[in-house]
């Protein structure tokens, strides 16, 4: 699930292979939410703010998954909510770590140079935005993550922009 691979949504099918593909989609997309949650942790956001962010992130990746043909329950189960909760809350999460470091003012290139492992959320962010554009799905969290990672938008400004969005239904 990398932007360079030109991944696009596949036609909707209901075979067993499709189920695995949609679970893999949920598993890749959750890393984007973990990047943002890490920023929240790095900014010492309150528990309610972090929970709200994670909830909005889950809704965002679910919308993309549904548009790509996934069963919404995939995102409500272990491949979605379970993985989001674990990845966003674990101090061992590479994606959360990247977000925390971004919030502390480190650039993505400096963070990448300091890591021995891969933070999948970085490439997933680019790929998700390509897929979202193709499917007509709005992804404000992924967009802000991309701008922080690749366009030097400060995490503080990104969070302020997300918080300034008008309230509306998440579905």
Structural class: mainly alpha
Secondary structure tally: strands? 0
- Using the CA coordinates, give the radius of gyration: 15 Å
Query: How many distinct helices?
Result: 9
Q: Profile the largest sheet.
A: none
Give the overall pLDDT as a whole number.
86
Low-confidence stretches are 1-14
Outline, from the CA principal axes? globular
Order of helices and strands: HHHHHHHHH
Instruction: Tell me the fraction of residues in β-strands, as a range.
Output: under 5%
Considering DSSP H and I runs of 4 or more, what fraction of the residues is helical? 55-70%
First-residue to last-residue Cα separation = 24 Å
Q: Explain this structure to me?
A:
By secondary structure, the protein is mainly α. Helices cover 69% and strands 0% of the residues. The protein starts with 15 loop residues before the first helix and ends in an 8-residue tail after the last helix. Residues 1-14 have low confidence and may be disordered.
Question: Which SSEs are present, and which pair or pack?
Answer:
Blueprint: H1 16-42, H2 47-67, H3 72-76, H4 78-89, H5 94-103, H6 108-114, H7 120-135, H8 140-150, H9 155-163
Which structural traits does this protein have?
171 residues; mainly alpha; 9 helices
What's a concise summary of this model?
By secondary structure, the protein is an all-alpha fold. It is built from 9 helices and no strands.
């Amino acid at each position: 699930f990398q932007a360079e691979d030109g991944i696009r949504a596949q036609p909707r099918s209901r075979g067993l292979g499709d189920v695995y593909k949609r679970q893999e989609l949920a598993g890749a997309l959750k890393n984007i939410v973990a990047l943002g949650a890490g920023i929240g942790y790095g900014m010492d956001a309150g528990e309610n703010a972090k929970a709200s962010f994670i909830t909005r992130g889950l809704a965002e990746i679910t919308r993309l998954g549904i548009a790509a043909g996934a069963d919404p329950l995939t995102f409500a189960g272990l491949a979605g909510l379970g993985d989001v909760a674990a990845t966003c809350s674990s101090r061992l999460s590479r994606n959360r770590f990247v977000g925390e470091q971004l919030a502390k003012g480190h650039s993505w290139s400096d963070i990448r140079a300091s890591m021995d492992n891969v933070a999948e959320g970085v490439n997933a962010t680019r790929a998700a935005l390509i897929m979202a554009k193709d499917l007509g799905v709005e992804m404000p969290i992924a967009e802000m993550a991309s701008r922080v990672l690749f366009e030097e938008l400060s995490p503080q400004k990104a969070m302020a922009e997300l918080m300034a969005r008008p309230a509306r239904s998440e579905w």
